[in-house]
Amino acid sequence: MQRAIAEKIAAGEASSVAQGAALVAGEPEVEELISPVVKQVNKMWSSWEKMEDEAKQQFIMKLKGEGFI
After folding, report:
1. Which pLDDT tens digit goes with each residue over 14-57?
2. I want to staple 27 with a disulfide (CB 3.0 to 4.6 A). Which of 3, 7, 8, 22 is the partner?
3. Would the pTM count as exceeding 0.70?
4. What are the angstrom distances between the C-alpha of 58 and each of 28, 49, 50, 64?
5. What are the Cα distances from residue 65, in Å, to 27, 58, 60, 61?
6. Distance between CA 12 and CA 46 in Å, rounded?
7. Domain boundaries in the chain?
C-alpha cells in the first residue's frame, strides 16, 4: 500500500499521503485543508527564494522601518 501511495504522489495524482491513500483505497479524493494564512506565507516564501540579495535587503529594511523586526 505504501508503494502505491508513493506512486500516486510521484505521478502528481496526490499531493499528500492522505490523498494518495484515499485514491488507492478507491475513496473520494481528500482535499487538503490549508489555511489562507499558510497559503500566503508559502507564496511569499516562494517569492523570497527567487529574489536578488539586494531586493531581500531592501525588504528587510522595509520590515524594520515598519517595526515588524
Report:
1. 888 988 898 899 987 666 666 788 789 889 999 999 999 999 99
2. 22
3. no
4. 46, 14, 14, 10
5. 51, 10, 9, 6
6. 20
7. 1-33, 36-65
